[in-house]
Amino acid sequence: MKRLIFILSLFVSLSTFSQNLIDNQWQFKLGDSLVWKNLDYNASSWKTIKSGIAWEYQGYANYDGYAWYRKTLIIPEQLKKEAFKNGGFNLNLGTIDDADEIYFNGKLLGATGKFPPNYVSAYDKIRDWNINPQDVQWGKENVIAVRVFDESGNGGIMGENISLKMRGLETGLSVKVLFPTENQVFVKSQKLNFSVTLSNSSVIKLDSKVDFLLVDDFKDTVMVWNEPIKLLAGKSKTIKIDKPILKPGFYTLYVAIKSDLLNFNKSFAFGIDPEKIVSPTDIPSDFDNFWMRAKKELAAVDPQFKLIKKDSLCTAKRDVYLVEMRSLENVLIRGWYARPKAAGKFPAILHVQGYSSTQEMSSGYSGDDMAVLVLNVRGHGNSKDNINPGFPGYLQYSLKDREKYIYRGAYMDCLRAVDFLCSREEVDSRYIVVEGGSQGGALSFATAALDNKRISLCIPAVPFLSDFPDYFKVAEWPANEFTQFVSKNPDFGWDKVFETLRYFDIKNLAPWVKCPVLMSIGLKDTTCPPHINFAAYNQLKVPKEYVVYPESGHGLPSEYMKAKVDWMKIELGKLSAAKLK
Fold first, then answer.
1. Got the DSSP string for 94-115?
2. Longest dimension (CA), the chain
3. By three-state DSSP, how is residue 289 classified?
4. Phi-psi region of 259 (alpha: psi -120 to 50; beta: other; left: phi over 0)
5. Closest to 536 (Cα-Cα) out of 465, 479, 473, 475
6. Across residues 38-64, what is the average pLDDT?
7. Mean pLDDT score across all residues of the chain
């Protein structure tokens, strides 16, 4: 009997040690006060929301700014000895949109991103911090407090599988999916073949089942199945998956394991023949005339280029200027321009920006072998003098009138930037590159399409403003801005919204591109999902390549920066060699 009691006691202890000590329910309050981090602060009047879902969808629509999350929890006294032995606890909150500070009992655990006035977004970074066992109130109330700043779009704790677990004594279960290709994209495959390896590094035997859920781009369930799993402590098992090939598109595989000792969920994204995704153009009958008139109107505006040297930004090898110019409708726009100090003519690169972001000189290419223009299109950064719809609101600006819609001007701002580069004697106008991410990816596509005689290379990343009919089905933000517009303007329904947006859809502009294109995507991107990226890419009739980052969302990893520069240098070399022949 004593031996049975000991075994049951050990089982209960291991179960307690390995369990997740927090759930996704939080107390929540808009605003900002550092008093809210304190253990003794009374937050009983705060509302309750869930992590894993943006606060915009929980009663706080359109709110941008500071907000706090608080969670009160009791950490059992029985964990104290093992916690000190193993170095405390691990707190994982996943991603937080945009910047944050995380406190435990009033003590700062860590910060990710930066708050204003030196704002830096870090919405795609995992928040993973250690809690020192000396800071725990054993058997009493403890408080996790999270201070969040959201600059635009969705905000809050976005991690779906948040956890607080003891270090070193987690269940030790890891799941790895091995796809046939490193980028997790199946091309010309006859079967959906991959393997799932489960490794149990704990001291607990796992006797359960693995549940698989497969969903497509549109969140529709494609397949559900399960596999039994018996896994001894310290052992691994590989499950071979062999299913019929699916239609071209992008998919998410959810792997879940539930037992008395754990509740484990993880997702894996993959693609199938993305270049075969069918999303036909819906080009209006007067499309050519619409953009021809826009360019004629731009040409009639005196650009009034003005350069203001910024000595504090200059280096030994290049000079830096604030640049001003007039664009469509005589709108004043600005940017930053850097030119090599060395004599000669140089290729140029135009950097165009993401939605709601502010471009600084540091946003651009830092080499001294190219002329660099970092542009703020109208309504962004330092180009808000004449037009400033704000965010949200930008996407809705003059949506009822395609002749005045915000992106008609923004696309022309990019062409005016090309005019500026071509006006510079140090720029070799035969070699002009345009690049940007998200909205900047769309602006890159649009610039290469509408100015196809002067743009030599196009480098869009996770491009926005594509395939609007499907976009509203596969993305939430900032698509919700259009939903809000329709709800506030019942006389201007979805049919009329789509009628306007057809003129600005980069899927419809892509056939006009005449230069090589390198597109990069994140398989886990929920802001500009890969489906809409390829809707435009597949309409290109030029040499093109795509790069997939399987673990990335809307923010691409650091290696992307090197990859795009390397590609650009190789392609510029090819162009130069071709012109010498």
1. EEEESEEEEEETTEEEEEESB-
2. 95
3. helix
4. beta
5. 465
6. 90
7. 91
Which of 570, 483, 473, 579 has the alpha carbon at shortest distance from 518?
A: 570
Q: Which option is the CATH number for 173-276: 3.50.50.60, 2.60.120.10, 2.40.170.20, 2.60.40.10?
A: 2.60.40.10
The residues spanned by each domain of the chain are: 2-166, 173-276, 287-580
| Cis amide prior to 117 (ω within 30 degrees) | yes
pLDDT of residue 59: 86
| Alpha carbons 498 and 558: distance in angstroms, whole number | 36
User: Which carries the bigger pLDDT value, residue 410 or residue 8?
Assistant: 410
464 has a pLDDT exceeding 70: yes
Cα separation, 346 vs 415, in Å, equals 19
CB 270 within 8 A of CB 249: no
Q: Looking at the domain covering 287-580, what would its CATH class be? A: alpha beta
Between 124 and 417, the more confident residue is 417
DSSP string spanning 221-273? EEEEEEEEEEE-TT-EEEEEEEEEPPPSEEEEEEEEEE-SS-EEEEEEEEEE-
* For residue 9, pLDDT beyond 80: no
Q: List, in order, residues 6 or more apart from 37 with CB less than 8 Å away.
A: 68, 103, 106, 145, 147
On whether the CB atoms of residues 538 and 172 are closer than 8 A, the answer is: no
Q: Which residues are catalytic?
A: 438, 525, 554
Quickly count helices (H) and strands (E) in the chain: 11, 27
Q: Which amino acid is at 138?
A: W
Q: For residue 149, which amino acid is it?
A: F
170-217: per-residue pLDDT in tens? Answer: 456 788 999 999 999 999 999 999 999 988 876 667 788 899 999 999
Q: Identify the CA nearest to 353 among candidates 98, 79, 58, 121.
A: 121
> Which CATH superfamily, name and number, covers 2-166?
Galactose-binding domain-like (2.60.120.260)
* Residues 244 and 189 sit within 8 Å (Cβ to Cβ): no
